[in-house]
Amino acid sequence: MELSKRIRRPRWTDARLLIGAMLVILAVVGTYLLVTSANSTTRVWASARALVPGEVLEPADLTVAEVNLADLGKKYLSADSELPENTSVRGVVAAGELLAASAVAPLSELEGRVVAIDVAGSVPSVVDSGSLVDVWAQPEQNGLDDDGTPPEQIVDSAPVAHINRDVGSFGAGDGARIEVFVGSVDLPGVLAALDGRSVLSVVGAPSVPADEGEQ
């Protein structure tokens, strides 16, 4: 009789059974929520082409991307909301890159302007919209009395908005017109070079990695 009492069947009211059942339910619910979250996507804006500061953002410049961002969804500009008017980007956004909310700003807040520069020489083939270039100015040669003033760099890492390589004055490939975004600090020097007797040229500059540009 003593043995039969010790091996009696457990009851559902036993606390250990209730705790075990609750753990099983929590595990099932947690797995369901995890799978649901993993399969959910967020609609955000991505660039359809390279975006450059100073250009007004238009719907045609963007495309909708459905991505799984988990808790990062608020970091990017939602495609479910209308694109703000008269806005631009603070830095270069590569084609296909997700558009961070912090990268968009009213055009009036940008510290700089897009300037068209006529380049006397050829522009490297790697330079295109979205590239970064350094701008140099060389005083025009005045003949035998010229003092040989060396060229001076007047802009560092300017984003390229547009480039037209078919505007040479003396033949194909002998010049280009390039539109770059120039910061307010460098703007007076660029305008002075454009109004003065200087020959401008550009060279490609290293691009800034996206993760460094957002810091």
Question: How would you summarize the topology of this molecule?
Answer:
Layout: H1 2-6, H2 15-39, E1 42-47, E2 62-67, E3 87-89, E4 104-106, E5 112-119, E6 132-139, E7 152-164, E8 176-183, H3 187-195, E9 198-205, H4 210-213
Antiparallel strand pairs: 1-2, 3-4, 5-8, 6-7, 6-9, 7-8
List keywords for this structure.
SAF domain protein; 5-stranded antiparallel β-sheet; alpha+beta; 9 strands; two-stranded antiparallel sheet; SAF; 215 residues; transmembrane helix; elongated; single chain; Type Iii Antifreeze Protein Isoform Hplc 12
Question: How would you portray this structure in words?
Answer:
The radius of gyration is 30 Å and the shape is elongated. The protein has helices at 2-6, 15-39, 187-195, 210-213, and strands at 42-47, 62-67, 87-89, 104-106, 112-119, 132-139, 152-164, 176-183, 198-205. The model has no long low-confidence stretch (mean pLDDT 79). The protein folds into two domains: 42-108, Type Iii Antifreeze Protein Isoform Hplc 12, CATH 3.90.1210; 111-204, no CATH class. The chain has 215 residues and is an alpha+beta fold. It has four helices and nine strands. It has a five-stranded antiparallel sheet with strand order 5-8-7-6-9, covered by helices on one side. Helices cover 20% and strands 29% of the residues.
Distance between the termini: 76 Å
Main beta-sheet strand count, sense and barrel state: 5 strands, antiparallel
Oligomer: single chain
- Helical amount among residues, as a percent range? 10-25%
The number of helical segments is 4
**Unreliable sequence segments:** none
Q: Which class of secondary structure composition applies to the elements?
A: alpha+beta
Instruction: Give the topology string: H per helix, E per strand.
Output: HHEEEEEEEEHEH
